[in-house]
């Protein structure tokens, strides 16, 4: 039990499940599946490492529910047919073996099809602006017929049953972030005038039908959650009051918990907030939903540090926290927090350079500007050197401190030379308040140098002074 973060490490329940702590790995696309959506060995290594870090639950990235228009991105994980089940079972077993509860999110992309290819389906023929700018008329989705909507409803239920069959212990319906369900819910993306459009009751309809179909197929005791955006932040979109109304309806339909974030891909600044946006950006929406429902609420979005997560739980703004990018920067975030070592957590600085920009928009697998091992688990482990050497590192900025840290961990005798003070230009870079996320990174790096006992020589060093060093 942590003495610094007691609420984080209290067991919690969602439906019939008991989780060892209040931390969940939030679902994030990785780009590491096969072209047909099947599980790869690389994907298993990645999730095994995530699960070993101490989170109570790992919610596997969104998996597409049908083979028509649900697939969103390159190398997107699939759950659209029974041939996906063996690989998904392999994945669930590996997560469970590391002590975390395996869960999975199921999804239909709607108009937000990063691939920019047809078929593309949505409630109305309104394209996502980014895709329109990139692909033109090819990015205009076809308006779904009522028969096609019913096919998608059943596809969600079938996908949930596959998740249960594969050994996942919870399924999360993706009803947020500008994907298909929010395309129906938001007046921005739906101009329908039939029973799926117009009034709030009609815009809720597909959510209700999907939850009913999922619940019918997985049974009354299997945990089912749903992710909702508190608001899409669109000028003519849906406000928090409508999301709260939706949550009340879905609670009666048997949803076991609500996972609350915000935004859509047109308003990405609110969905995957950069450092210029305040941390915990969408927690206010989780708090609003929590006040209206009796089941647990998962707060999510830019909860970068354990003190933020602890405050959310202690103040009653949420019952669990979902961590996405922070577990890419440091998969051992939960373990280090539980051991009261927050200073050893490599913090996410919300630069979005290795994750958001690399994956969705550049057709590559995930990486992290601070953690080169993410998505390359088992390839870049820090191992003891064959021979210890005497090494000088000149410059105590972020690169120099990381080089010194890794060399020391490999067993080398390291001396770090820095003319001024450790941190280099991170001092100037972190001065503006809108770049405050850099400050915890600088503190982390300096702390690691100190903990490893690396000597720091505060002087400007000439090349001839380094003659006695091996490297």
Keywords:
471 residues, alpha/beta, eight-stranded parallel barrel, 33% helix
SSE diagram, text form:
Blueprint: E1 12-14, E2 17-19, E3 23-25, H1 41-52, E4 57-64, H2 85-97, E5 101-107, E6 121-122, H3 129-135, E7 142-143, H4 146-166, E8 170-175, H5 180-185, H6 200-218, E9 224-229, H7 240-252, E10 257-261, H8 268-271, H9 283-290, E11 297-300, H10 306-314, E12 320-323, H11 325-329, H12 333-338, H13 356-359, E13 390-394, H14 398-409, E14 413-417, H15 426-429, H16 438-451, E15 456-457
Parallel strand pairs: 3-4, 3-12, 4-5, 5-8, 6-7, 8-9, 9-10, 10-11, 11-12, 13-14, 14-15
Antiparallel strand pairs: 1-2
Structural class: alpha/beta
- Please report the total strand number as a whole number: 15
Please state roughly what percent of the residues sit in beta strands, choosing from under 5%, 5-15%, 15-25%, 25-35%, 35-45% or over 45%.
5-15%
How would you sum up the global shape? elongated
The residue-averaged pLDDT reads 96
Give unreliable regions as ranges.
none
Distance linking N and C termini: 43 Å
Largest sheet: 8 strands, parallel, barrel
Specify the helix fraction band: 25-40%
- Radius of gyration, taken over Cα atoms and rounded to an integer in Å: 23 Å
Question: How is the largest sheet built, in terms of strand order?
Answer: 3-4-5-8-9-10-11-12
- Number of discrete helical segments: 16
């Amino acid at each position: 039990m942590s003495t610094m973060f007691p609420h984080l490490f209290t067991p919690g329940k969602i439906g019939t499940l008991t989780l060892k702590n209040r931390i969940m790995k939030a679902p994030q696309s990785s780009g590491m599946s096969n072209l047909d959506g099947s599980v790869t060995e690389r994907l298993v290594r990645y999730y095994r490492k995530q699960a070993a870090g101490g989170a109570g639950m790992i919610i596997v990235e969104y998996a597409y529910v049908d083979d028509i228009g649900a697939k969103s991105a390159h190398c997107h994980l699939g759950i659209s047919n029974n041939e996906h089940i063996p690989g998904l079972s392999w994945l669930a077993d590996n997560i469970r073996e590391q002590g975390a509860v395996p869960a999975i999110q199921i999804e239909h992309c709607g108009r937000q099809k990063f691939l920019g290819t047809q078929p593309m389906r949505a409630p109305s023929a309104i394209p996502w602006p980014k895709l329109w700018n990139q692909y033109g008329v090819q990015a205009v989705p076809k308006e779904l017929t009522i028969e096609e909507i019913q096919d998608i409803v059943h596809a969600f239920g079938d996908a949930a049953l596959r998740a249960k069959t594969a050994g996942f212990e919870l399924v999360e319906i993706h009803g947020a972030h500008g994907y298909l369900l929010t395309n129906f819910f938001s007046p921005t993306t739906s101009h329908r005038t039939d029973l799926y459009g117009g009034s709030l009751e009609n815009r809720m309809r597909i959510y209700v039908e999907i939850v009913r179909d999922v619940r019918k197929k997985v049974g009354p005791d299997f945990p089912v959650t749903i992710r909702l955006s508190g608001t899409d932040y669109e000028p003519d979109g849906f406000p928090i009051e409508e999301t709260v109304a939706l949550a009340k309806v879905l609670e009666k339909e048997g949803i076991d918990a609500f996972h609350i974030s915000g935004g859509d891909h047109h308003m990405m600044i609110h969905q995957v907030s950069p450092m210029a946006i305040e941390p915990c950006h969408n927690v206010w929406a989780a708090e609003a939903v929590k006040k209206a429902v009796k089941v647990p609420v998962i707060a999510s979005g830019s909860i970068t540090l354990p003190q933020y997560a602890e405050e959310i739980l202690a103040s009653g703004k949420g019952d669990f926290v979902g961590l996405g990018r922070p577990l890419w920067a440091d998969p051992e975030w939960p373990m280090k927090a539980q051991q009261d070592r927050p200073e050893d957590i490599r913090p996410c600085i919300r630069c979005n350079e290795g994750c958001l920009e690399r994956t969705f928009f550049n057709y590559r697998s995930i990486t992290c500007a601070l953690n080169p091992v993410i998505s390359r688990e088992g390839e870049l482990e820090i191992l003891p050197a064959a021979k210890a050497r005497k090494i000088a590192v000149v410059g105590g900025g972020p690169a120099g401190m990381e080089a010194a840290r890794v060399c020391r961990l490999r067993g080398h005798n390291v001396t770090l030379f820095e003319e001024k003070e450790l941190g280099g230009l991170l001092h100037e870079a972190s001065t503006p308040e809108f770049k405050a996320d850099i400050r915890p990174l600088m503190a982390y790096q300096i702390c690691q140098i100190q903990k490893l006992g690396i000597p720091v020589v505060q002087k400007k060093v000439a090349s001839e002074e380094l003659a006695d060093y091996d490297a």
